[in-house]
Write a structure and sequence with these properties.
alpha+beta; Jelly Rolls; Rossmann fold; 2 domains; five-stranded antiparallel beta sheet; 9 helices; 24 strands; 21% helix; globular
Length: 405
């Protein structure tokens, strides 16, 4: 868990990060450093300011934000938007508040089904330095695009408080993200890595604001290795490879992969671990019972999409799930067959054997007790760290054009 920092120490640490864009090395490469996948069905708002927390996985300058109405059905008006560095909760660091514009306009409309990137913002951020994005929505919205399971806090105020440092107006809190769907920066880094999957990648039931998902731990490993790689978590709880799930669990991996992973700035690698929800829900194609052949066909489609974009895709084996609420022996047979194919087929550009890293050696169909959050499906924070440790960083060193086509 990230240790708290006093305001004095934080101010000293961040003073160099405010309005230093002119001193920052300029590059034409942008990397994504935070980008949750969005689904339909988020809350509606009326004359509210949303103050959202983004946790950048890598540092850089000339920050931009992406605002989403991708899953909305009516235009979304933004009356004012700002970005600031976080002190704690909804309090911004004095002097760090920057106005956000889109095509040089401070207020704008996001059409239904679309997203907008902001103009570059003259500020620099460090890895793991939280950013507060405040969005004033002046009128009644429809259901918003959102990410249900943020395991972080969004703060809400009545009326417009977007440019305020003080947190006193933000009297409502939620544990979901709304509208904000991405942060990128200019960087000399090695590009973007996308962790793509379901609730395990999404960090289900990890401590709030602890940033203890396996992609968070992987980003720290890369930073310790002196590599400025943007690591993006594109997990959605309940998501499936082959079929669309209930609204907040998103459209299928096959249908969202292009947008949520491949279209992000400077993506070089995707680590894919998904399929256990297809298995647990017996969710085959066109309402049929799932087969291993169908699931493998889904993996092949994702590999095809990645390679067509010149992006390396690494397959992650599915974790043990005996004892979970939707466990079955038939499902376990599919999991074993799918994992065997991931390990042995050679069709992925590399393999991370999450299954081997987290299973009980004496009972391989069971998640190790030391890594089990308690539901026999989702890892605890120690398990998330073990997943990150299972990634061979050498798999991420090859140039993007080494991906097999």
């Amino acid at each position: 868990m990230i240790k708290p920092i006093t305001r004095i120490a934080l101010t000293a640490l961040l003073v160099a990060a405010i309005d230093v864009a002119s001193a920052a090395p300029q590059t034409d490469q942008r990397i994504a450093v935070w980008a949750p996948s969005m689904t339909a069905g988020g809350a509606a708002f009326n004359d509210n300011t949303l103050r959202l927390v983004a946790h950048p996985s890598a540092g850089g300058s000339q920050l931009r934000i992406r605002l989403s109405n991708l899953r909305g059905t009516s235009p979304l008006n933004i009356g004012e938007a700002t970005v600031a560095l976080q002190v704690h909760d909804a309090m911004a660091l004095a002097g760090s508040v920057h106005k956000v514009t889109v095509s040089h306009a401070g207020s704008f409309t996001i059409p239904a089904g679309q997203e907008l990137w902001s103009d570059p913002i003259p500020m620099q951020v460090a890895a793991e330095q939280n950013v507060l994005v405040s969005l004033y929505v002046p009128g009644q919205t429809g259901a918003t695009s959102w990410h249900s399971d943020a395991f972080d806090t969004t703060y809400i105020a009545s009326q417009n408080h977007a440019d305020e440092v003080d947190a006193s107006a933000y009297t409502i809190s939620k544990t979901s993200w709304y509208v904000l769907s991405g942060v990128d920066v200019a960087s000399k880094g090695e590009g973007t890595l996308v962790a793509f999957g379901d609730s395990i990648t999404d960090g289900y039931d990890t401590p709030k604001s602890a940033y203890a998902r396996w992609p968070d731990f992987l980003a720290r490993r890369l930073a310790k290795d002196h590599r400025n790689v943007g690591v993006v978590d594109a997990g959605i709880g309940g998501n499936r490879v082959l079929t669309d799930a209930p609204v907040s669990q998103g459209i299928s991996a096959i249908h969202r992969f292009g947008h949520d992973a491949l279209a992000l700035p400077q993506v070089r690698t995707v680590i894919l671990m998904e399929g256990i929800n297809d298995i647990g829900n017996h969710a085959g194609v066109d309402g049929s019972a799932l087969t291993a052949e169908q699931l493998i066909g889904g993996y092949r489609e994702l590999i095809k999409q990645a390679h067509a974009a010149g992006i390396r895709i690494i397959g992650g084996t599915m974790l043990p799930y005996r004892g979970a609420g939707y466990y079955s022996e038939a499902g376990e047979a599919i999991r074993q067959a799918g994992n065997r194919w991931i390990r042995e087929s050679g069709e992925f550009d590399g393999v991370v054997d999450f299954d081997r890293a987290l299973r009980d050696p004496s009972h391989p169909a069971v998640l190790s007790a030391s890594y089990d959050s308690g539901d026999h499906l989702h890892p605890n924070a120690q398990g998330m760290q073990a997943m990150a440790n299972a990634v061979d960083l050498n798999l991420l060193r090859q140039p993007r054009d080494k991906a097999r086509h």
